[in-house]
């Protein structure tokens, strides 16, 4: 049952708060309306009908007397008691009691009149303002009518109006206070969501003590992560600077050497430089400059054009137009890694870019051997080399290509998805970035 209710529950915090606020008020209104108000007006109607029966019994006594003088006086008595004597032919048209479905107090009226000792045959309550009562007296059938308000509580709507007005007023006051309590939670949620997308927005903890504590913890966590990223980047940049100088001297010395073994040693030095560049790319993947608006379609088209010089790659599909807030250099490097990885193991590479209101999708497909489903999670981990399908030992790979792409996706609040290409049969790498 709870699983069934979850499908219809509001998703947002404000929606659920409104439901918590309004549901008890509506339940209280319905309960009061159906229980208290109905019973109250039924009792009032019953009591007023009992007083009416006394007057009606006095009038019926003149008809039951059978004396012509009494019958003549019945009309004057009816006027004095505020009754009207209707056409006797109307009694033949009243074959049953008639009452509207929504007339709850009318049922109490009919029940009370029939329980009285009066010779009442039928009652008609369909008229909006009058009640018609058919009587079978000793002098024959008669129809007596009177105003409905004689047996109805005066101003019956006042209690309902009072309940509704008070409910609206209390709901408004509760909403104002509840909104002030929910606003800090919403601001914390927005700051967390934006930081998950790689965007840092101004945030200051506010609200209740618990919300302030959670906000302060979030700010401290965000600052600590930023410090760790900066320290890692600075450390690797320093290591890179210190290593490049001796590597450059080795490379220069080996390039002018006449020793035959110098050629192999020079290849080792170049591979070390490539590995060093890969490490730096991985360290910079989530420590880029601030986000900026860029055209992703133009960025992908430019990257594909450059990659075409190194192998077969085609931009097959573009959909959507608009600017997206991202880190262009980081996205370009991630796309170059995907295309380069595909060109290494395949001779056909297709790239497509799809842009909609919710996300940006960049898809790279090839006709290579692909990656088994059981190894796709491992392929996105740093320093992992797959074997034998896409062995990273081929060439100068160090197992950071897909890890860099996955890290770039996470820094933009997205993810890298690996699957099998339906069109080419090889690997399908889908870079999904939240807008």
Automatic annotation (TrEMBL):
Claim: Kinase is one of the keywords in the record: yes
Main location class: membrane
Locations listed in the record: Cell inner membrane
Gene3D superfamilies reported in the protein's UniProt record: 1.10.287.130, Histidine kinase-like ATPase, C-terminal domain
Catalytic reaction annotation: ATP + protein L-histidine = ADP + protein N-phospho-L-histidine
Keyword ATP-binding: yes
Topology relative to the membrane: Multi-pass membrane protein
TM regions (residue ranges): 159-178
InterPro entries cross-referenced by the UniProt entry: 2C_sensor_his_kinase, HAMP_dom, HATPase_C_sf, HATPase_dom, His_kinase_dom, HisK_dim/P_dom, HisK_dim/P_sf, Sig_transdc_His_kin-like_C
PROSITE patterns cross-referenced by the UniProt entry: HAMP, HIS_KIN
Domain HAMP: 179-230
Enzyme Commission number, as recorded: 2.7.13.3
Classification via CDD domains: HisKA (cd00082)
One Pfam family per UniProt: HisKA
GO cellular component: plasma membrane
Keyword set, alphabetical order: ATP-binding, Cell inner membrane, Cell membrane, Kinase, Membrane, Nucleotide-binding, Phosphoprotein, Transferase, Transmembrane, Transmembrane helix, Two-component regulatory system
Domain of life: Bacteria
Top enzyme category: transferase
GO molecular function, one term: ATP binding
Boundaries of every Histidine kinase domain copy: 238-435
PANTHER family named in the record: SENSOR HISTIDINE KINASE ENVZ (PTHR44936:SF5), SENSOR PROTEIN CREC (PTHR44936)
The protein's name in its UniProt record: histidine kinase
Organism: Ketogulonicigenium vulgare (strain WSH-001)
